[in-house]
Amino acid sequence: MRGGSRRNLSRSVVCWGSLLVGLAVILPLVTAFGETLTGDVAGRWAALSTVVLDRMVDTAVLAAGTTLIALLFALPTALCLHRAEFPGRKLLGVLYVAPLLIPPHIHAISWLRILGKTGYVSEALRNMGIPFDVRAGVFDVGGAPLVFPGAMWMMAAAFWPLAALVISAGLKRLDPSLEEAALATVGRRKTLLRVTLPLLKDHILAGAFFVFLFAAACHGIPALLDTPTIMLEVFFTASNVDPSTALVVATPLVVVALCAFLFVALGTGRRVWGGTVSFQRTPDTLRPRSRTAFLIAFGTLSLTAGWPLASLVAKAGPFATYQAVFKQLLPELTNSFQLAVVGGFLVMAAGLVVALCLLKWPRRKAFTLEAIYLLPLAFPAVVVGVASTRFWSRLSGTWWVDEYIYQGMGISLFTYLMMFLPFSLRCLRATMNRMGEGVLEAAELTGRSGGAIYSRIVLPLVWPGIVASFLISYVLILGELSASLVVNSARWQTAEVRIFNMIHFARDEEVAALCIMMAGLALLPFAFYLLVFNKKVQIL
Fold first, then answer.
1. Could you list the residue range(s) of the whole structural domain that residue 113 is in?
2. 118-132, 368-382, 425-439: which has the minimum mean pLDDT?
3. In 302-376, which ranges are continuous DSSP H helix?
4. N or C: which terminus of the chain carries fewer CB neighbours within 10 A?
5. How many CA atoms lie within 13 A of 364 on its CB side?
6. Are residues 28 and 124 in the same domain?
């Protein structure tokens, strides 16, 4: 009897904790957009001018083009890593996420060293008599360009691992007997076209959705390339007009993102990430040795991450440059590291509380509740930053809000929790799904309290997911720029914000050195976890 009451108490604590996390994440977004329907409603909604709607069209075209290019990278790479055998396959299976760990604006800075006005590729083309401008658009409609290939390329190079992760998870879940049967009758190429790809359609669609969402909400790359998008309009309005008007300007993008999220979640969500899963071992017959597969996988990674980073290293020059930048920007580097570590633990802990609560819900209800916690994915970073600022402004004047929230790291941590909880939760849920439902049921038969079951059975089984959840949160916070420009106080200016500001007045060598240092801070802990502990991160 005592065991049952202790289990109920532990579950109540976990569930109440998950409810508080949900309120902390969803309530500011709801209240912020609710403000757009009060006060000077007509004045705010008048901001939805033709220019804003035109920028929405530009954003949709930009995100769609980025998604297509990203799929051209992601689908062949995922197939090569899981349906071929070649030297270094396991290493490349770890390293292919590297472009995703590099902040988008650092991608843009590195590509500008190659394709910008002073880039060596641009200079070579000009010497050949070929005019080239990576910022230029093509296909004029109404006197303005509609397609911006340079921005599409840079965002695709940054976000394609999102689609590759989802497609890779789908390949691991396929029943290999279906492909083996087709292989014995119609050959390898027809098996790929008629069996493998049709079975992967849900995962391909989900991967495309994530890339589209990230591309549409991206602020750093369009800002550096002067690409007209709705995010630039939102940021300008939030900085120079009124935060509530900025939320109105962002409304079309948020509505489109929410509709796309609901379509993917309801249409493919349960098949992509719902329920308990058991990854299938790929038979050797489905993984022939292939040099072409090595060239595709290695070439994609080298093109999208290796080449840009190498250009930054070459631009930064000798080690003395790094030393000078480190001494000059030590406060900003320290702020970034502290926010990433503390925020990583906060987001991981919040995700763990929610995941433990969902563990005991029926599968269908757990999936629905999880979808609610994933809703912040549909809100761009600038919008989340504005919503967070508006929420805490209601409590301004209270000493602890002014001291610890506005002037301290509190508002930044609160904003990062809103933005990155979905990634932490999804990582932990994927790990718990692989644990199996029978484990928890068997543990309850022992009569132990809920706290003992969680601490002695569940947590040891899911610790790789806990560590991975922290690392994902750490990397995302470390590279965050858009919301930080809105919410961070002067005392907590981060290195990413400093990079964004240095582009216009600092020496190129200093900017390149700082970019390499930040990329190293993001990549090294992740690589250590993946290589030393031989663990792979599962987000599905």
1. 49-273+291-316
2. 425-439
3. 307-316, 319-328, 330-359, 363-373
4. N
5. 0
6. no
Nearest to 274 by CA among 437, 420, 159, 160: 437
Question: Is 43 domain-assigned?
Answer: no
Same domain? For 327 and 258 the reply is no
Give, in order, the Cα–Cα distances in Å from 204 to each of 169, 191, 196, 210, 272: 10, 17, 11, 10, 10
Together in a domain, 55 and 85: yes
pLDDT tens for each residue of 17-50: 788 888 888 888 888 877 776 666 666 666 567 7
157 within a domain of the structure (yes/no) = yes
Q: CA–CA separation, 281 vs 61, rounded Å?
A: 39
User: Could you give the maximum distance between any two Cα atoms of the chain, in Å?
Assistant: 85
302 & 321 share domain: no
Residue 347 has pLDDT above 70, yes or no: yes
Say whether both 32 and 110 belong to one domain. Answer: no
Strand partners, 141: 144
Q: Are 99 and 70 in contact (CB under 8 A)?
A: no
CATH number at residue 411: 1.10.3720.10
7 and 130, same structural domain?
no
Decide if 282 is inside a domain: no
Q: Name the DSSP letter for residue 536.
A: -
- Taking the C-alpha atoms of residue 83 and residue 297, their distance in angstroms, rounded to an integer, is 12
57 lies in the same domain as 121: yes
Looking at per-residue pLDDT, the higher value among 176 and 14 belongs to 176
Give the count of beta carbons closer than 10 Å to the beta carbon of residue 191.
21
- Nearest Cα residue to 247 out of 383, 434, 440, 424: 383
In a domain, 340, yes or no: yes
140 three-state secondary structure? strand
Q: How far apart are CA 175 and CA 384, in angstroms?
A: 40
Query: What's the rounded Cα separation, in Å, for the pair 429 and 435?
Result: 10
pLDDT-based confidence at residue 241 (cuts at 50, 70, 90): confident
Q: Could you give phi then psi for residue 187, rounded to 5 degrees?
A: 95, 170
**Taking 80 as the threshold, does the pLDDT of residue 406 lie above it?**
no
Q: Which among 513, 431, 529, 535 is positioned nearest to 475, based on CA atoms?
A: 529
Sequence-distant (6+) residues with CB within 8 A of 437 are 276
Residue 1 has pLDDT above 50, yes or no: no
- Measured CA angle at 450 (ends 449, 455), to 5 deg: 100
Does 253 share its domain with 334?
no
pLDDT: which is higher, 356 or 271: 356
Q: What's the number of domains the chain is made of? A: 2
Give the torsion through C-alpha atoms of 437, 439, 445, 449, to 10 deg.
-100
